[in-house]
Amino acid sequence: MGTAGDYEAPQRVERATGVTDSGGRVTLIWPVGAFAAPPVVTHAIEAASVGVRTARIISNTAASTTFEVLVTTGVTVLGISVLGPGVAAQGVTVHAHAVAP
């Protein structure tokens, strides 16, 4: 078995965790020089209380990524369950992985 071939260095991967403020936002700061361009970011949210949560990236640069998390609760109207309007979710933990593009 030969050992000829090409080797591709692995991409830079960083991870961070933060907790949302009263406005439902959290900014995760990437190490200086970690990325030359905005990274590809995946995220998960963790919360213990009742309600449906949504999270979205509202800003993404090579230095940081900012998330906004909203929470909504279900409302039953005439026997039909519907979601109420989303409001800022304070105290929600956001986990993120960032990979160099």
Write the layout of secondary structure elements.
Layout: E1 13-19, E2 25-29, E3 40-46, E4 52-60, E5 64-72, E6 74-77, E7 80-83, E8 87-88, E9 93-99
Antiparallel strand pairs: 1-9, 2-5, 3-9, 4-5, 5-8, 6-7
Features:
53% strand; 9 strands; elongated; mainly beta; three-stranded antiparallel β-sheet; four-stranded antiparallel β-sheet; single chain; 101 residues; 0% helix
What does this entry look like structurally?
This protein is mainly β and 101 residues long. Helices cover 0% and strands 53% of the residues. It contains no helices and 9 strands. Strands 2, 4, 5 and 8 form a 4-stranded antiparallel sheet that branches. Strands 1-9-3 form a 3-stranded antiparallel sheet, with no helix packed on it. A hairpin with a 2-residue loop joins strand 6 (74-77) and strand 7. It is elongated and about 70 Å long. The two termini are 33 Å apart. The model has no long low-confidence stretch (mean pLDDT 89).
Brief account:
0% of the residues lie in helices and 53% in strands.
Unreliable runs: none
How would you sum up the major sheet? 4 strands, antiparallel
Structural class by helix and strand composition: mainly beta
Output the radius of gyration: 19 Å
- State mean pLDDT (0 to 100 scale): 89
* Terminal Cα span: 33 Å
Shape verdict: elongated
Determine the number of helices (DSSP H or I, runs of at least 4 residues): 0
> Which percent range describes the beta-strand content?
over 45%
Instruction: Give the helices and strands as they follow along the chain.
Output: EEEEEEEEE
- Helix fraction, binned, reads under 10%
How many beta-strand elements? 9
